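Notes from the pairing session

We agreed to fold both candidates in a single pass and log them together. This is the raw record for the first candidate, unedited. Please don't reformat it; downstream parsing expects exactly this layout.

Candidate A
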Amino acid sequence: MRAMLTRINAIAAKELVHIRRDPRLLVAVLVMPVLQLLLFAYAISFDVRDVPTVLLDGDRTSESRAYLAAYEHSDFFHVVGHVDSPAQVDRAFDESTARVAVMVRPGFGRALTRGETPSVAVLLDGSEPNSAQLGQAYAVALNRQLDREVFVEWAQARALDPSAFGAVDVSVRTWYNPGRRSADFLIPGLMVVIIMIVTVQQTAVTLVRERDLGTFEQISVSPVRRGELVLGKTIPWAGLAFANMVATTFVAITLFRVPLRGDLLALVAGTLLFVLCCLGIGLLISARASSVEVANITGLIVSFLPGFMLSGFAFPLNSIPVVLQWISYLFPGRYMVDIARSVFLKGAGFEVLWPQIASLGLYALVILSLATLVHARRAD
């Protein structure tokens, strides 16, 4: 046992020497994840506000002006101008100067005073589906509010009690993220994706570099066993990856004010197992790659695309095809994104997250064993 620990320690010390000799590698591993978190957190946002809107008042009455004023006072719609014809609306959409157009048709005020239903058209630019969907929802909500105000005025003008007609009182509350900040949703998942990309890509070249430097043959004829070599290679990178996770967590809490409500030990346990999973993927790629370039490209593809598309970071997994949902189980990001968001936002602990943590533990065991087996066959 002592001899095995000595050999593992020797491999780990050798790997640390290689890491310290390359300052650029240290910058890429320790500094780049934090910079990427800052860049993506500020650049990516699902918060849609101030959507450019143009207004067309075809009635030009006090009623139509009061109606359009509700759009001007809205936080969602940002009125960038008034147009005089539908052709100008088309031009605004073509030039992307507006995403929404509100058109009040002639006779709006007369229909309103008669108690009839006036006609209004709200046009949405569907080339940006997120803004179009939210624009439709906001326009419907705004018009329902205005309808209620018109009804109240109509009832009061006839000395009627509006409350006597009855209405449904709907109370809507948002749990876990009351302010509905996209940063609170995105940053925990973004931390996972960045760590996965950096860890997989850097470890994907470690065994290939040994072959290129000519030291692989020396290690092969040494008393070091295959599993000890993989474990010794894993330990330094695991420490660096865990330090990255700590740094990005600190930035998320202090700079972006993302709440950390759950069990910190559950987050630590999930992070350690997730890092081991990523290291296993990188070592598996490194054991099969024929060159550093092939290892880099393969590591980027295996980590980047699944990290963004199949982890639930940006898109709900239940909204993608069933086949891709099953494929997502082959990548550890799926489990870690659930852990990170549940700990940060929902206040979850081991009693809730044990299935994801156990899945990461099993994944780490399988992928590291597979990497050791493939490395042994390649060495033979």
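Candidate B (folded immediately after A)
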Amino acid sequence: MKKMILAVTGVICMILAGCQNNAAIPEGTETQKETVSEQSEEADSEGLSGTENFLTAEQAGPYGKITISLPDGWKYSIYPTDSDELRTGIYGIHFYPEEAAEGYIELSYVDAFGVCGTGLAVEETTIAGSPVNIGTYDGHEYWDFISFQGEKEGIVATTFTVEDWWDEYGSQVLEILDTVSFDRKVKEGGAYIYGRESEAEVIGLQFSLKNISRTGATLVFDQYDIDTVSGELTYGDDFVIETKKEGKWTAAQIVLEGDYGFHDIAYTIATENTTESELNWEWLYGELPPGEYRIGKNVMDFRGSGDYDQYMVYACFILN
């Protein structure tokens, strides 16, 4: 679907995914689930009143490492960058009472955060030494999101299907969030960064990346409006990588010696759907060092031999 952008308090923001609250306790091989009985240490009890045991949950990503402490009776799951289990962020942690049948708090890094809908009340306060905005829709008993500001800007907590256990555990959720730390010096992996150059509205196409490493990534073409296409959307094997230096894009260094070329082939981009393909750039650019980059791809709206329009789209990303 087309990426929607909101301006909230002077920041370009993305829609809070779904603007809804229903989720089961997630299962899957990408998660790590722990209880205090499996890992218990003497507590630093600040912010965790009435407990002698705690569990540390942490997840690092391209913008820094998120860490929280959980008291006895709580479980967590961790999700690296590009995990499909996250609802709002690009990497983070789910935590929930051990006895809960469903529902969780998602604590994640969101590269741009915004909200949608009516009936929203926002309270400003301080949690974990940082200013936060607490948002609640329609006056229900639990909050919907807490967005951290200041040094922890980008960290967002959201609630999903917590109604059945909020009365008993809601106060502990705030105590847990009061232990949040965010270390921007501990970074790992890469992340796609949305920009206007990623989108060609004239053909209803958005270009993005996932599973980014130093040697490759998954290309994602999202065609969201069939009425904009006059022929068949296609792309080839050709690509270019540029790096940002002193605020300007310059060609990344090619490590391959001698001449090179790309196969003359056309791959179809499905209309009103998502098309993915794998790209390995190591043969041409080697392992990219940490920095800010963009990949350029040519996309054709092909109607017939000699009858087509060509567009260049870029997907920006960072590497650590």
